[in-house]
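Entry for the shared binder. Reason: the reviewer on the internal report wants the predicted structure included alongside the sequence.
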Amino acid sequence: MLQVKGVSRSFGPKQILKDVTFSLEPGTITGLIGPSGGGKSVLLKIMGGVMRADSGEVCFDECVANEDGSLACGLMFQEGALFDSISVLDNVAFPLVSGKVPVSLLGLKRRRAVTERVAAILARVGLARAWHKMPGQLSGGMRRRTSLARALVSHPPVVLLDDPTAGLDPVASSVIMNLIVELHHEYRPTMLVVSHDLRRLLPVVDSIYALYDGSIQFGGNLAKLRAEASPFLRSFVTCRFELGQGSSHPAPH
């Protein structure tokens, strides 16, 4: 299990996160929703170890820990966070080679294995022909798909995805969300997905947390959301997705 315990974070006088506490069950997909600017991206960066909390901690089992004790996870940043000086291939390969890029400097056997792994994930996110391009040559949507491929390529035990369908058209959004579900079926990572695209997110998650005003205001499954959500949360959700409405996406279980 992965647990977030009492995490708080401020930037100057503004407190973004206030004693955030929740847990993720192993092998599940959990959605994190809430208004823009509510701290969701900051929370994912703290969980992924790229930003420090002012107080609180992130606890996890040994099976999802790196050798140095940090969380072994794939993190997709909201802004993409690609390395502009290296190609799409080398960006996606980065987790596979512990940052030892470019891949062309690897030995032949290792280079072939890494290249094949990267080519496979790029094909699945619709970027098979973009492997040689530099990030500056990509559209916003292509940058997001490259970032998603990098987060998933090593099949990490924990995957943190920050708005993976933002900036994509409806068809591409459906493809990406279906890919996330397919990869979850394949090797069962613990996933936390931040998204404002509730029409595609809600039907595929096992549970939902709502973050607003700096703290977790709701936690539970879709049935509980229908029955027990506050008027504010119900209004927030309904304007993006009619609760109980059908979806073209299969449930993950």
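Summary line for the report: Residues 87 and 134 are 5 Å apart (CA to CA).
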